[in-house]
Specification:
The protein is built from four helices and four strands. It has one domain: 5'-nuclease (Rossmann fold), CATH 3.40.50.1010. It has 104 residues and is an alpha/beta fold. 51% of the residues lie in helices and 13% in strands. A two-stranded parallel ribbon has the order 1-2. A two-stranded parallel ribbon has the order 3-4.
Length: 104
């Protein structure tokens, strides 16, 4: 990640990282990582919430998009940013989303 000036994270992704922690120590490590690498946490706004609702309606049945993924996709779209994801399954059907898939 050398040379990267800005790093962004949806508040939904941040919450998921904290939820997957096994204990308070792992939560502290997640928080320190976010802080040390200077991520900006993007908030859930009214526009993001509305777009996420549209995504769930449009893609929930066909691609299995759930609320959390819809919020993450909507955050990227509303902020005009690409979304980097290790699993493209739930995001690939969103036409206006610039998706960058990586292998963890």
């Amino acid at each position: 990640m050398e040379g990267v000036k800005y790093r962004f994270l949806s508040v939904q992704t941040y919450m998921e990282l904290l939820l997957f922690a096994k204990d308070k120590q792992q939560q502290r490590l997640v928080k320190r990582f976010i802080s040390d690498f200077r991520f900006t946490v993007l908030p859930l706004t009214e526009n993001i919430g509305h777009r996420a609702l549209v995504y769930v309606e449009e893609y929930g049945v066909s691609s299995g998009m759930r609320a959390g993924d819809a919020i993450i996709a909507a955050t990227a779209t509303e902020n005009g940013m690409p979304l980097s994801a290790g699993n493209a399954k739930h995001f690939k059907s969103v036409k206006e989303l610039e998706l960058k898939v990586f292998k963890p």
